[in-house]
């Protein structure tokens, strides 16, 4: 006769079949193997580790490795992922970033704390730090010249439509004013060698600027992130009154399609190859001398195959001056861009990143600069022309493969 414990283990495995239980309650990863027996949810191995940080609320055990009592299984059966999420995710604001298993540890940890520990999605007043339309505080900002992080005061104000920061604590004039309309924020723990490191990108004179920040407190950092998302959401709702949530939400913040080092040459292809850091941000390919540079040395727009953009492995036969052996050629209507990767894997990954955007048809708003007659995209066009644009709408003003104001070509 099977022991009670075996029976309980089997019942738990059967509970995985119930709708909602087949994916981690917190990050959505498939086939969770851990259970919080105080919350009654199935979670993945990675999230189970984060639940251990809130041991006063959540106690986790392995479905397969730990002994289970009948009453524990009974309780888990009575709750389950769908019911728990209906309670703990009652009022997640539309703009709030819901992390997946692909996201950095900080985002996932703070999501779990916000959900179960602070119960931010059960009590609307607890969302004030990111939903009030105004936020100010001190963040460590990386200095442009020496790379040292210095304490700077930041203010995000939806009313003024900007994020700004001040060099001196009593300064009246901000050091930089970043329009919410072109703002992006992404967590970059590896690039900054800091688990709370964040990159903020904005456009100035239609070229990309970067700043790098962090705060020791993980909640502070994620609150800033969601405050920026909230501000962008409210801005976009006004800018595109007819747009649905599902159209706007992907535009609040975005991760880069790919980043990494490649070698590049200039427009004549005889300039010699130099190692540079590349960032593929939607259709905008930028390069930097250093991954933490304040601005790109050059930017190029990658269109779609319908507009004669192609990516090919290898370099033209007569190419010289590269050290890395794995070439890539991007053919655009104007010229060819040549790159060299250090490894075959890098080459494959970059080609697939370029292919992703080349295979994607251009969105109507990406042609905005090309259109001059009235159409259903009129609002997008007028916004693009009045400098209140989304980053990729701004790009569409000149959809030729040249964007940098300083460089007529992606040059060395
Ligand atoms: Zn998970």
UniProtKB/TrEMBL annotation:
Q: Which residues form a coiled coil?
A: none
For this UniProt record, the keywords arranged alphabetically read as follows: Cytoplasm, GTPase activation, Metal-binding, Repeat, Zinc, Zinc-finger
State its location(s).
Cytoplasm
Species assigned in the record: Labrus bergylta (ballan wrasse)
One Gene Ontology molecular-function label: phosphatidylinositol bisphosphate binding
PANTHER family xref list: ARF-GAP WITH DUAL PH DOMAIN-CONTAINING PROTEIN 1, ARF-GAP WITH DUAL PH DOMAIN-CONTAINING PROTEIN 1-LIKE PROTEIN
The record's listing under Pfam families reads: ArfGap, PH
Q: Which domain of life is it from?
A: Eukaryota
Name the SUPFAM superfamilies for this protein. ArfGap/RecO-like zinc finger (SSF57863), PH domain-like (SSF50729)
Q: Which Gene3D superfamilies match?
A: Arf GTPase activating protein, Pleckstrin-homology domain (PH domain)/Phosphotyrosine-binding domain (PTB)
Q: Which GO terms describe its cellular component?
A: cytoplasm; plasma membrane
Q: What is the lineage of its organism?
A: Eukaryota, Metazoa, Chordata, Craniata, Vertebrata
Q: Where is the Arf-GAP domain?
A: 10-129
Protein name as catalogued: ArfGAP with dual PH domains 1
Domain (PH) ranges:
132-233, 255-359
Protein's UniProt keywords contain Metal-binding: yes
What PROSITE patterns does the database record attribute to this sequence? ARFGAP, PH_DOMAIN
